[in-house]
Each structure stands twice: as C-alpha cells, then as structure tokens.
C-alpha cells in the first residue's frame, strides 16, 4: 500500500519550462485495472502506478490530464519506456498513472510530461481564470462551470458557463467584444501568475473579504493561484507564469444552455489554429462562389434571393402548364 499521496511537482512549478516536466521518482504502489478498455471498447490490461512524486496533472476541475512516459532502467542497462495513457486522482488524493506494463513497487523511474499538451492546457486554463475574472468585473456574470477538451482536430472546445447578473437577460455581441478586449489588455500587460499557500483559516478570511469567490471542501493548506491585480482563485490546476504566456484570447460564440450562457473561447496557439481553420473554410466557400471572404455574405444573400424568385416563377409556370396543354 502507498504510505502517502505523491508530492505534486506541478503545484509550485507553474508553466512549461524545464524541471517541471521531467522528474525522477519511485514507484510506491501498483494495481491492475481489471475493467480497462481501449477506445474501441476492447478489453486491455492496464496497470495503475503510484509514485512518491509526480509532475503529471490528474484529470480534474474541468481540465484533462497530462500524458507522457515513465522510463525505468534495469541494472543490466535495459530500458523500459511505458506511455502514460491516463492520470487520475482517487478520493484519498493518490495520483494513479495508467500504463500497459507493470512497474513493480520500489522501481526508480524517470517521468516525462508531454510539453506541447501541457502548454496548451495551461494556456487554456489560465485564460479561463482571466476570462471568468473579466466577465465578473465587467458584467457581474459568475462562472459556474468550465470545460476543456484535449486538442484534436475539430473537437478542441473550451467553454465556460455563466450565470448572469440578476435582471440581465443575455450577453450581447458588444459585451462579448468588450470582455474580449479587456482580457487581451491584461494579457498584453503580462501580469504575474503565482501560487501561494494559505491555511484554511486564512482562506476563509479571504472569502469573507470577497477576495475569493469559493473554497474547496477539504481541510488543511490551500493552494491559491494569484493573478496580479486580477484575482485570487483556490485551484489545483496547471497555469502559465504570467498572463502574457496565455498568448491572446479569442471569444468565438455564446449560446443559451439550460444552466445559463455558454461562452466558447480559445487561447494562444489553439486560437491561432482555430482562426487559421476558420479562414481556410471561408476561402473554400469564396472559391466556390468566386468572391473574396469579405463579399461572401452579400453573395450568399443574393443567391438566396435568386432562389426565392426562381421558386415563385416555377409556381406560376406550373399553374399555367395545364392551360397551355389544353389550348
Ligand atoms: Zn486554475
């Protein structure tokens, strides 16, 4: 049995640089996941490995886990590298790394976190802190949930659900652009993002002063993520070191959902990718209709008018058809 939960190396090493992503650790526990299945539902043998320390972020708080590898070197020099396919935290706070080969208790391993995936998640997640803070300060809208899908072509969605200020019916396009501009200004100002640890009592005092909006249930020391001059947030996620590293924030759309208003957005390289794909689609449509992207709406409106006029004409002609045949 594991004696105590793993030391979380990603807690104090914000960002994607250096040592936060590569680390040495020892296996403290291993168990077989007898229910594991791959993406196609096929049964697979997956082992769950606990370490004395880890830089792998486990799935939680709306954010998917880190992926990467664990490498063990035998005395003979033989190297075993296993992919970390999933990382989850159990109720006792233990972090389990899912791998396809067993790594016995006591094995010394080198861990390596996939840097591109971490950077993407940290940009989106820190961007979410910033966007939620700006929605609150500018419109009085509270964020009630956050969802981040891993980066895959066509499915890379990041959303927050908002509860609007009482008396407020909707979020207008103008308000969206105002919030987007304010968030990007704070990105330009490159505010520091750092981790501070406070006792439960201190955290409750911060809550009473209105510096924190909510607190997790658990007792003991609490990790607070402080965005300079913007907000304090009790959060266990991965973040970039300063708002500049969010790299830009693009609000894509807003829609009404059962629990409030859902805002879709993306940050950094994901925003660059999304904008590039959007433009490629516009160019594709423009080529079909032989117009530039800027003239697409006018061209499509014209085509719709033409279609309506043609349908009307067809109706008239159909009515005349029996008379023409009988005359
Ligand atoms: Zn966070």
Structure, described:
- The structure is a single chain.
- The mean pLDDT is 89.
- The chain is an alpha+beta fold and 327 residues long.
- The radius of gyration is 26 Å and the shape is globular.
- A 7-stranded antiparallel β-sheet has the order 6-5-9-2-3-8-7, with no helix packed on it. Strands 10-11-16-15 form a 4-stranded antiparallel β-sheet.
- The protein has helices at 9-12, 115-139, 173-188, 200-208, 268-289, 296-326; strands at residues 7-8, 22-33, 46-51, 53-54, 68-73, 79-84, 86-89, 95-99, 108-113, 142-148, 158-163, 193-198, 222-227, 231-234, 249-257, 260-267.
- The protein binds zinc ion (ZN).
Number of domains: 2
Hetero compounds: zinc ion
Q: Whole-Å distance between the termini?
A: 97 Å
Q: How many DSSP E strands?
A: 16
Nutshell version of this structure?
By secondary structure, the chain is of the alpha+beta class. It contains six helices and 16 strands.
Key terms for this structure?
327 residues; four-stranded antiparallel beta sheet; binds zinc ion; 2 domains; 6 helices; single chain; Elongation Factor Tu (Ef-tu), domain 3
Spell out the blueprint of helices and strands.
Blueprint: E1 7-8, H1 9-12, E2 22-33, E3 46-51, E4 53-54, E5 68-73, E6 79-84, E7 86-89, E8 95-99, E9 108-113, H2 115-139, E10 142-148, E11 158-163, H3 173-188, E12 193-198, H4 200-208, E13 222-227, E14 231-234, E15 249-257, E16 260-267, H5 268-289, H6 296-326
The chain binds zinc ion.
Residues 125, 129, 225, 233, 235, 237, 239 line the site of zinc ion.
């Amino acid at each position: 049995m594991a004696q105590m939960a793993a030391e979380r190396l990603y807690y104090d090493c914000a960002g994607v640089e250096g040592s936060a992503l590569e680390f040495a650790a020892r296996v403290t526990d291993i168990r077989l996941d007898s229910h594991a299945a791959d993406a196609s539902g096929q049964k697979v043998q997956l082992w769950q490995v606990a370490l004395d320390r880890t830089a792998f972020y486990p799935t939680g708080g709306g954010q998917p886990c880190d992926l990467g590898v664990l490498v063990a070197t035998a005395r003979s020099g033989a190297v075993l590298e296993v992919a970390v396919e999933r990382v989850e935290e159990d109720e006792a706070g233990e972090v389990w790394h899912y791998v396809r080969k067993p790594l016995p208790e006591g094995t010394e391993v080198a861990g390596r976190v996939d840097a591109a995936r971490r950077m993407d998640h940290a940009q989106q997640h820190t961007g979410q802190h910033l966007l939620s803070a700006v929605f609150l300060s500018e419109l009085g809208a509270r964020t009630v949930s956050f969802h981040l899908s891993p980066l895959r072509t066509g499915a890379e969605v990041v959303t927050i659900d908002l509860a609007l200020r009482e008396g407020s019916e909707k979020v207008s396009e103008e308000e969206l652009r105002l919030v987007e501009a304010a968030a990007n200004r704070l990105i330009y100002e490159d505010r520091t993002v750092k981790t501070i640890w406070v006792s439960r009592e201190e955290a409750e005092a911060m809550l009473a002063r209105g510096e924190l909006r909510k607190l997790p249930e658990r007792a003991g020391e609490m990790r607070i993520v402080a965005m300079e001059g913007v907000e304090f947030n009790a959060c266990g996620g991965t973040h970039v070191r300063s708002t500049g590293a969010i790299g830009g924030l693009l609000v894509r759309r807003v829609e009404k959902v059962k629990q409030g208003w859902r805002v879709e957005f993306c940050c950094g390289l994901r925003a660059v990718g999304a904008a590039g794909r959007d433009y490629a689609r516009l160019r594709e449509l423009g080529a079909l209709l032989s117009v530039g992207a800027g003239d697409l709406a006018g061209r499509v409106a014209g085509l719709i008018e033409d279609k309506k006029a043609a349908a009307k004409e067809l109706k008239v002609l159909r009515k005349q058809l029996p008379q023409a045949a009988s005359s």
